[in-house]
Amino acid sequence: SLSVHCFSTFQVANPLCVTMTASRSRRQVYVLCLIGSVSCAAAETPLGPLPRTADGPVLQEPTVPEHYAWLRDYQQVPFKDFSIESAPKMTRFTNLDDVTFKQLVRDGQPFVVDDCTKGFDETSIDTLQCQDFAKKWPTGNMRAEYTPGQYHIYMKDPDWYSNIKPQKKHKEHMAGDRKISGPYIWHVKDEEPLKTKREVQQHWRTPYFLKPSIANRMEANESFEFWFALPGGGTFSHADAYCETTISLQFRGTKRWRVQALPPVKHFLNATSFGDEQIYDHKEHVPWQPETEFLVKPGQCFVFPTGYVHETYVNSTDEGASMDCYTASTFQFNHPRQVNLYRSYLSSLSMSHYGMGEPCLQNMASYATLLTRIDYRKEPDPSQVELNAQRVIAQVEGPDGDGELTNEEIFNHFCADAKTKKRVLKAGGFRYSWHNLLSSEQKEQLEKEALEVWAEDALQYHDVNKDRKITLQELTSSFLQWHVVMWRFAKLKNIGKKKKSPAKWLDEVIAHEESVLRKFYCSDAQNCPPADDLVAHGAQLKKKGKGAISRVMGKIKSMYEERDGEDEELTMVDRTTGSADKKKVSQLKSEL
Predict the structure, then answer these.
(1) Are 306 and 359 in contact (CB under 8 A)?
(2) At what angle do helices 360-369 and 418-427 cross, to 10 degrees?
(3) Is the pLDDT of residue 311 over 70?
(4) Confidence band (pLDDT; 50, 70, 90) for 399?
(5) Per-residue pLDDT at 570
(6) 116/108 Cα distance (integer angstroms)
(7) Order of strands, sheet of 292-296, starting from the edge strand that comes earlier in the sequence
(8) What are phi and psi of 2, to 5 degrees?
(9) d(C-alpha 267, C-alpha 550), whole Å
(10) Could you report the per-residue pLDDT of 26-71, keeping only the tens digit for each?
C-alpha cells in the first residue's frame, strides 16, 4: 500500500520526495514529501525515533535529534542566538488518523493539530467568551498565577476578564522587558462541586482523534481545566508534572509557544523539577535553549509529551490576536502510553520530579519488567539479568518459540486468560478513577482496549530497533536499565535516611553515583566525562561550604521524601468572600 507522509512548513525550495521501505505488519512503501508551508494530512505511520541497538551502556540516552523526528537536523544554539526564522518548524497535522496519532504518542513526539475542534457544534465550549463563563458559573473559583499567594477569584468578578495586571518579567521570556500577566486557572476537574463539573461537561467536546478510544474520551471529559488570559498574559518556562501526554486546546485567541525537550540529567546532584523560571539564567545544570517558537490559533491544539519544557505568551500583535480575553483548556488522555519516550529517557526522568515525586515510573513498571519481580535492594548483576530475560522469553513464547517475542505472543500469554488479564489490568494502572461511571458494556469495551494497548506498548517499550520483535539482547538491556535506575534511586534514599553531616552525605552520594556512571553509562570506565563532571561538581560544592551542600541535599530530599502530613500547609478559601487563610494540617485537626 502507498502512504504519503508530509511534515508541514519545511522551508525548501522545491518539493522533495524520498522513497523508502519499512517492514511493519505488511510491506509498505512510504513517500516522504517535504513541501514548503503546507499543512498535510497525516500518514499511516509517522517518522519517529531512529532505531537503536541494545548493545551499549544501559544508561546512555539518544540525542534530541535521534529521538525527535521534527528535530532530526537540529543543532542546539545558545539562547542569545535563538531566531524564530532559522528555528525548525513544529510538526502540524490535519485529519489526523488513529494509527498515526497512537504512534506519535508512543514515541513522545510533540505536534500541533490544526483542526482540533473539527466537528464541534454551536453549543460547545469553544463558542463561549470569558464573560459567558462568568455568567454561567459565577461561583467558579479560579487561581491567579504569579500573584502574591496565587490568590483566588470568583468568575463572577468582571475584574479578571476586564483589567490587565502585569505581574513580573524575565529577560529570557518571549516578552523580554515587558511584564506578563499570569493566567487564571479554573480547575474544574478537581476543585469544583460535582454539579458544576457536570454542567460544564454538557458543553465539552472531545477532539476527533481521541474518540476511537473509550479511555481517551472519558479521561478528556474528566480531566480538563481552563486557562484564561488577557493580552500580555503568559507563563514562564516550566515542565508540567503530568505523567501522561497533555493537550492544550486553544478556544479563543492566539497563543505563542516556545519549547525545549527535557534536558539530560546524568547524576542526582543535578536532579531538578524544572519549575517556573528555574531554567532561566542557567540556574540549573543546563540553560534555557528553546528549539522553536510557534503559534496555536483558535481551533488548534498543541499535543506534547511528558518532560517538554515550555513557556507561553499572548501577544496582542500576533496574527489573529485581539484585546479580548483568551480561553484555552488543558487535559490528558490515557491510551496509548509514552513507552518509547520513557524507555529512551528513563534515566533522566528518574532524576526529575517525574521519577522522584510523581508516580510516572511506577506507571511504566509493568512494561519495563513484563510483570517480573526484581529486588532493587541489590546491585544488578548483568549475567543474572540475562538469565531472567531468557526465562521470560521462554515462558511467553512457549516450547516452539524462536527466541524472539511478538505482539501476538505477548497478548496470548498475558492477556488471554482471566487470571493474567486481571494482573495486567491492575499492574498496568487501567482501573481509572472514572471506571464506575461506565456501563457493563463499556467496561468490557475498556478492558478489551486496555489489554490491546498494553500488549502493543509492552512490545514497543523493548523493541528498540523497531523490527516488531523483542530479542534476548533487547529484553536484557531493558531489564538491566530498569534495575539500575530503581536500585540507584533506592540507594540515594537509603543514604538520605541515615543521620550524617552534609559533607558525609555528599561523599557517599558522589561515591555511589560515580560508580553507577562508570559501570552503566560509559563504555570506558576510565574515560567517563559524566563521572568526571560529577566529581568536579562535588568539589565545587565543598569549596562553597556547608551551606551550599545543605541546600543541594535539602533540594534532593524534598523531591522524594513523603511528609507525614502534620506540617503540611493548606490554603483555605472562603467560598463566600473569597478570602484565603493558610493553616497547617495539625491546626485543622485540633479544631475538629
Answers:
(1) no
(2) 150
(3) yes
(4) confident
(5) 54
(6) 19
(7) 234-238, 309-313, 255-260, 292-296
(8) -105, 130
(9) 17
(10) 333 333 443 333 344 444 444 789 999 999 999 999 999 999 999 9
Does 338 score more than 50 pLDDT?
Answer: yes
Dump pLDDT digits (tens) for 400-433: 889 999 999 999 999 999 999 999 999 999 999 9
Non-local (6+) Cβ contacts of 234 within 8 A are 173, 174, 175, 180, 181, 183, 256, 311, 312, 313, 314
- How far, in Å, are 268, 588, 589 from residue 565 at the CA level? 26, 11, 11
3-state secondary structure of 323: coil
Backbone angles phi, psi at 563, to 5 degrees: -80, 150
CA-CA distances (angstroms) from residue 80 to 230, 278, 290, 347, 471?
28, 18, 11, 29, 45
Alpha-carbon span 259 to 110, nearest angstrom:
10
- Residue 5 to residue 487: CA distance in whole angstroms: 42
- Note the pLDDT of residue 453: 97
Q: Show the beta-strand stretches assigned E in 147-297.
A: 152-154, 184-186, 225-229, 234-238, 246-252, 255-260, 292-296
Q: Give me the sheet containing 27-34, strands edge to edge.
A: 2-7, 27-34, 16-23
d(CA 522, CA 532): 11
The pTM score is 0.87
Place of cell 520526495: 17
Task: Determine whether 59 is exposed, middle or buried from the number of CB atoms within 10 Å of its CB (0-12, 13-18, 19+).
Answer: buried
Q: Which amino acid is at 574?
A: D
Cβ pair 17, 33 in contact under 8 A: yes
Residues 6+ positions from 507 with CB-CB distance below 8 Å? none
Q: For residue 228, give the C-alpha cell.
A: 484564561
Query: Coil, helix or strand for 343?
Result: helix
DSSP state of 314: -
Residue-wise DSSP of 377-443: TS---HHHHHHHHHHHHHHHH-TT--S-B-HHHHHHHHSSSHHHHHHHHHHTT---TTGGGS-HHHH
Q: Which is nearest to 534 in space by CA: 507, 558, 502?
A: 507
Query: What mean pLDDT do residues 208-215 have?
Result: 96
